[in-house]
Amino acid sequence: MDALVYLFSLGFSGSDAARAALLLLLGALFITKRFPPWRMTVLLIIIDVAWPYVAMAQAGAGPQEINTALRGAMQFHEDAVVGFLVRLTGFYVFLRGTFSVRRKLQAALPEDKSRPGLLPF
């Protein structure tokens, strides 16, 4: 159990957890049949990885500081790779779960033919 807690803390720790929750909740709103959970996971991981560097640029950091931060992030660390994989898996599991719950809820509700739906699909 300690190993599982350690792995989860590598993927979601500190201020990253709030950012991940925000991205996941917003991403879960836009999943459709044409834009499945795995695509949203890829998009959210790209946003999640780029977010700190965009924030550095918005805060006024110069190209030299951003380049130094990128070089430091590109160094290979086993914990970083494990944390990334845990984060990727966590994103996918959450998005897939919310998508399936939403589809089951929509299938259980009676269909109202008197007004069209908000989305055409």
Can you tell me the overall shape? Answer: extended
Task: Summarize the helix and strand pattern as letters.
Answer: HHHHH
The percentage helix is over 70%
- Based on DSSP secondary structure assignment, what is the total number of beta strands? 0
Mean pLDDT: 80
Unreliable stretches: none
Taken as a percent bin, the fraction of beta residues is under 5%
Biggest sheet statistics: none
Query: What count of helical segments does DSSP give?
Result: 5
Straight-line distance between termini:
43 Å
Task: Provide the structure class.
Answer: mainly alpha
Computed Rg: 18 Å
Topology diagram in text:
Blueprint: H1 2-11, H2 15-29, H3 37-58, H4 63-74, H5 78-108
Helix pairs in contact: 1-5, 2-3, 2-5, 3-5
Describe the protein's architecture and organization.
By secondary structure, the protein is mostly helical. The protein has five helices and no strands. Helix 2 runs parallel beside helix 5 (78-108) and helix 3 (37-58) crosses helix 5.
Short description:
This protein is an all-alpha fold and 121 residues long. It has helices spanning 2-11, 15-29, 37-58, 63-74, 78-108. It contains 5 helices and no strands.
